[in-house]
Amino acid sequence: MHKLILALAILPALAATGARAQTVAVDVSEALWCSEAFTVLFANEKSAVPAEQMDQFNLYVAAAGKLMDKANQDYLAAGFTQDQIDKLKTDLVVEVTPAVTTGAQGKYGPDDCNPLLGPYLPTPPASASVAPEASSAPAPAPASSSSAQ
Q1: How confident is the prediction for the chain on average, in pLDDT?
Q2: HSE on the CB side for 108, CA within 13 Å?
Q3: Which of 14, 43, 55, 76 could crosslink 19 through cysteines, CB 3.0-4.6 Å?
Q4: Rounded to whole angstroms, how far apart are CA atoms 53 and 51?
């Protein structure tokens, strides 16, 4: 009898907290993990960035923030509350910090995370992207004839 009363007493609390299995796609989970890893990394590295590279550094910080915003929205769309997401983020900071600061094995690595920033980084000007390639590769012989076309 006491077990039944206890179960009935707990049932409204479970219903009120939305106790149900919530899931997100692996790519959403990865995006949140990576964005937290970038946040920790950039916070730790900011003081070591030379002044002349700070603008570029800030582009990456902003891209990581946009990645986190997208992951946050995807979690909300999957039915998570903002409080649940904030708890996940807090837990992730504890998880990613050793991977970022000591090189310990993390759930994801640079090969997984770095490409996720690409969509959130500004496209470099055409002249900036051509110059490094041109300087490192020999000029092709028919280059002048292709420019006439």
Answers
A1: 79
A2: 21
A3: 14
A4: 5
